Amino acid sequence: MTDLPTKARTLLDLHTAPDILVLANVWDVVSARVVAGVPGVGALATASHSIAATFGYEDGENIPLELHLDMVRRICRAVDLPVTMDFEAGYGDAGETARRALAAGAVGGNLEDQLRPLDEAVANVEAVLRAGRDAGVEFVLNARTDAFLRAPAGSDRAASLAEAIRRGKAYLEAGAPVVFVPGVVAREEIGALVDALGPQKLSVISVPGASLPTRELQELGVARVSAGPFTQRVALTALQDAAAEVVNGGVLPAGTRMLN
Question: How many domains is the chain built from?
Answer without folding.
Answer: 1
